[in-house]
Design brief:
With about 250 residues, the chain is mostly beta strands. It has one domain. Helix content is about 0%, strand content about 35%. The strands form 4 sheets. A 9-stranded parallel beta sheet has the order 2-5-8-11-14-17-21-25-27, with no helix packed on it. The two termini are about 15 Å apart.
Length: about 250
């Protein structure tokens, strides 16, 4: 499956999320944030991200306590940098969190020349975020996202991928609307509930391509309901989800 990065529909060739000129670490490929990004590195107690910030390749951001992404702000750690958060992460309304990089994230030019080791010591909670991009992270708590996204639109073209993570808690993604959402190749100790999410992307098969749920290992239940399109393998090339509990709703056959 081609990577569903955050791509502005009117500037697809620039691989950015918005129709804006964004400046980021030139080594790490396409920018994530909707404008010029400034670096953030070093060690902090608690940290609030305002504006557009990024973690450069080869550098480390260490937050001993909690990390918060302010309303409308953006943290671009979809790089070969390293991020460690000892506490939890809060993503506020209209904000963007892009965390982690793996070799499975393949698109030209790719920033992922290996797999990062980004960690979160507690929960990730997103309240009406623009999006999150969680890729190859270790999260020692829940991942919860309620609402958000730009709406069922291609302008801007915004995706919400959760891929290749180790999640020690539960996962709930409910009510997000954008171009594409997927939950792929994750290991989750708790339950996974994916509800009332909307994606409008047309995939390689010529059909609605969002809500791809594939190749996950979930020790609890897998619950999918009210999504548009309904949860599916789509063109992900993925395999059946291994679920220790039960599969409910749209994911019963996945």
């Amino acid at each position: 499956m081609k990577l569903r990065l955050l791509i502005g529909a009117c500037v697809v060739l620039s691989f950015g999320i918005w129709a804006a000129t964004a400046v980021s670490d030139p080594i790490v490929g396409p920018p994530i944030c909707p404008g010029a990004e400034s670096p953030v590195v070093g060690t902090y107690g608690n940290l609030v991200i305002t504006g557009n910030r990024y973690v450069p390749s080869g550098r480390t951001l260490n937050v001993i306590g909690s990390l918060s992404i302010a309303p409308g702000a953006c943290l671009d750690a979809f790089t070969m940098g390293t991020v460690h958060v000892g506490g939890g992460v809060v993503v506020n309304q209209g904000a963007i969190l892009a965390l982690g990089c793996t070799l499975a994230s393949t698109f030209p030019p790719t920033p992922c020349t290996g797999t990062t080791n980004d960690t979160v010591g507690a929960n990730i909670f997103a309240d009406r975020p623009m999006t999150m991009y969680l890729d190859g992270d270790t999260i020692r708590g829940d991942v919860t996202s309620i609402g958000g996204g730009p709406g069922p639109t291609f302008d801007p073209y915004v995706n919400f991928p959760i891929k290749d993570n180790v999640i020690y808690g539960n996962v709930l993604v409910e009510g997000w609307q954008g171009a594409w959402f997927g939950f792929i190749r994750n290991w989750t100790r708790g339950y996974v509930a994916l509800k009332n999410n909307v994606g409008v992307t047309i995939g390689d098969l010529g059909t609605l391509d969002s809500t791809e749920v594939a190749t996950n290992t979930i020790l609890g239940n897998l619950i999918c309901a009210g999504n548009s399109p309904a949860a599916q393998f789509g063109d992900s090339g993925g395999t059946t989800n291994l679920v220790g509990g039960q599969k409910f709703g749209e994911c019963a056959s996945l």
